[in-house]
Amino acid sequence: MPTTSAPPKNRFERRRAETRQALVRAARRILAETGDTSASIQAIAERADVGFGSFYNHFESKTELFDAAVTDALDEFGQVIDEHVQGIDDPAELVAAGFRLTAQMADSHPELMRILRDRGLAQIHTDRGLAPRALRDLETGIASGRFTCSNPTTALSALGGTLLSLVALRLARPDLDGDEAASDLAEMVLRMLGVPPDEAHQVTRRPLPSLN
Q1: Which residues contact 174 (CB under 8 A, 6 or more apart)?
Q2: Count of other CB atoms within 10 angstroms of residue 5
Q3: Which of the four, 58, 93, 150, 190, has the lowest number of CB atoms within 10 Å?
Q4: pLDDT digits over 183-192, tens only?
Q5: For the segment 89-144, what is each residue's pLDDT rounded down to a tens digit?
Q6: Up-side HSE of residue 177: CA atoms within 13 Å toward CB?
Q7: C-alpha to C-alpha distance for 47 and 195, rounded to whole angstroms
Q8: How far is it, in rounded angstroms, from Cα 179 to Cα 52?
């Protein structure tokens, strides 16, 4: 899982970073499996395979830990998308690719997607994960005339809500064709943003690299 801090400089710092990340990973698993944040600190520490006292060397409370776990998941989500959209300049195609890659991640990153489904609504307008990237693409599309909507913030609400509904659909109905569902929803969003219907359909069906 990705980390956003600089690499630890010595053995002590490396071990400290490893302990913190073990706690974050344990919290992520709990969020993905049950969403129950009432687990005791002792249970979290045991799941992370670290000593009970180590918890307070890194976090002041369980709330702080679970917030860090959500942030960690959002950062990973954004980085995975970034890795697969390099070289795409068209804001409309970036929106479509984000939807279609997210659908793939229901299979390749199920833990991450369950966290996004359950915690993502409150994160639509944060500065982590896909939100700042989507806002940037919306602003670029509006400035260039690619999108005809005028307010990127409200457009982000519509885009983010639709993306989260796609995540919920993929997790609830794994039997559905994920790429078809993602392409259909992305096409609706692009039309809402002002892309002509024929072009929106074409953009959402372009070849896309697989995450596998």
Answers
A1: 106, 107
A2: 9
A3: 150
A4: 999 999 999 9
A5: 999 999 999 999 999 999 999 999 999 999 999 989 988 877 898 999 999 999 99
A6: 6
A7: 48
A8: 44
Among 78, 91, 195, 201, smallest CA distance to 130 is for 78
Distance of CA 100 to the CA centre of its chain: 13
pLDDT tens profile 50-102: 998 899 999 999 999 999 999 999 989 989 998 999 889 999 999 999 999 99
Q: Please answer whether residues 84 and 133 qualify as being in contact, where contact means their C-beta atoms are separated by less than 8 angstroms.
A: no
Judged by DSSP in three states, 134 sits in: helix
Largest CA distance in the chain: 60
Q: So what's the pLDDT on residue 57?
A: 92
Distance CA 44, CA 42 (A): 5
Phi, psi of 58 (to 5 degrees): -125, -30
With vertex at residue 140, the alpha carbon angle to CA 137 and CA 145, rounded to the nearest 5 degrees, is 125
Q: Read off the amino acid at residue 70.
A: V
The model's confidence at residue 1, banded by pLDDT at 50, 70 and 90, is very low
